[in-house]
Task: structure prediction
Amino acid sequence: MSTLNARPISTSASIPPDIMDELIAWSVKLNSGTASDVDQQRFQEWRAFDPMHEHAWQTLHAMEQNFTAIPAHARQLVANTITRADAQTITAKPRKPKLKALAMTTVTLLTAALLINQVSPWQQPIHYATHIGQRATFQLADGTQLMLNTNSSVDVRYTLLKREIVLNHGEVYLITGHDTDALFGRRHFWVNTAQAKFEAIGTRFSVYQQASTTQLHVAEGIVAMHVAQQPEIRAYANDTYRMQGASALPIKTESSHSDPMAWVDGVIIAKQMRLEHLMTELSRYQTLPLSYEDNTGNLVVSGVFQLNRNDPAEHALQTLGHTLPIRITRQHGQLLIRKK
Amino acid sequence: MPAADATPQQALRTFYHTHHAWLVNWLKRRLGCVHHANDLAHDTFLKLVAKPSTLTHIQEPRAFLSTVAHGLMVDQFRKSALEQAYLDAIRHLPVSLAPSPEEHLAMLEILLQIDLLFRGLKPNVRNAFLLSKLEGLTYPEIAMRLGISLRTVETYMAEALRHLLTVPRA
Result:
């Protein structure tokens, strides 16, 4: 990897030759029109078999978007024009360019950006999801690291000029990549939820989509928050914001009772947290029906709770049983928490 | 070599004064137009301004400059060929469908970028790929259109993919 960083000319160089061969063979087969459902299934298995396979496929997908991002009505024209130009390249005499090359590049990049942003349709998104209790990290084609918390789902939509991640539900942590391979230079990076759009400005941050709220936490850099038609609000390192409903402005909150990024390291860190609040948080990782009696839900707890284990919620509760004045009994398929 | 002691800017200035007239002359002989030669010489030196570190590695200044200038000449030929082909293609469009000046420039830029990706590939390999990705043709349709076998289409597609995945981007 270090040699790649020193010469960021072609990230594709990071695909080993044997994987490149397999990738190309798959691509040709799947596009030939003769691929069966079994082939599709076996390709999905190939992708999942090795992170390097997934990386290779991502790289291919990103490359192909240089073509699929061309507005549909212009594709045939592009293909025809490039083919026709061959005949003229051999005989044509150079003519004086109408504009200086440099000025032309700047102007055209700008207008190309405007045009394509307006007309380019959604690309085929790539879907990532986790089950309850599962967490997973993915390396995207632009170098972005995407980490999904338990029970989460995102769609990754990268187009010619924009990188966009749609958070359907759950929580995502992102370290945005440098996007060195993009055709028109580094693309803007957006995360969309039901409540807001976030534009990352070279950064690390997490977004948590709950039933009707979105929570943003910035670990490093700046994230610009856009809600409805309101002017953007910027969140800086260590800021946490909550957005409720479709148009209410983001509210800065203190995450004093738990560390919003601790799940990235596989733990929950509680600081003077209500027991019921902690267990609600843990229930995201393991479905565990609970009921509280004698006001036990309001007991205050602190500690570090491991997520990298089986039944993390139940284990945390059993541990707390040793230090808190509570008795835990099983009743009708749920756990009852009472005072000792 | 005097450039070793000088700052990069001074080295570049010296380099420019020593070789500029020669390069313009070299280009004029090939292009037959002094204005055009001046433009291209200017662009050639701009490449060095963008990457001044190159200067210290240049052993043969004239060979280096003529190689860069030749590359730019090829770019220019290809650019005007693409522009001409594009103008031909849209000439027959009704006024209502004709692109606006903004769309026109955007299209030219897309054409240049896409075309550049395929540089070094056989035209038919590129055409097979474009028919598949841009016109949505199936492999049998591409075979028919280009008058080649299905097997060849597959070979071409693999070749194009390998090229596009390994071509260095500027």
Remarks:
- Confidence is low (pLDDT under 50) at residues 1-12, 91-111, 116-123 of chain A.
